[in-house]
Design goal:
Largest sheet: none
Number of helices: 2
Structural class: mainly alpha
Oligomer: single chain
Helix content: over 70%
Shape: elongated
Number of strands: 0
């Protein structure tokens, strides 16, 4: 994914990018929650596998997406588009 400088985007481009990032962030959160629930279920069943620890690896990606979402929200507030 290429780096986009938010301050150089026009208002329309920023709103479009914000909508896209919000959708991606929501999808990542849902996937993370589902993986966490499946990990808990496998631990309760006493069947620990390599995929049980997948949410730990995916947490970093979700945190990075959250940080990008926060930056986008700040830029929207600066421009009074929110």
């Amino acid at each position: 994914m290429k780096k986009i400088n938010l301050t150089e985007l026009t208002n329309e481009e920023l709103l479009k990018e914000a909508k896209k990032r919000k959708s991606l962030f929501t999808i990542q959160c849902v996937i993370f929650i589902i993986m966490s629930m499946m990990s808990i279920i496998t631990i309760v069943d006493k069947d620990i596998k390599v995929l049980t620890f997948l949410p730990i690896a995916f947490a970093g990606i979700t945190i990075a997406a959250w940080q990008q979402h926060q930056l986008m929200e700040k830029e929207l507030e600066l421009r009074n588009l929110k």
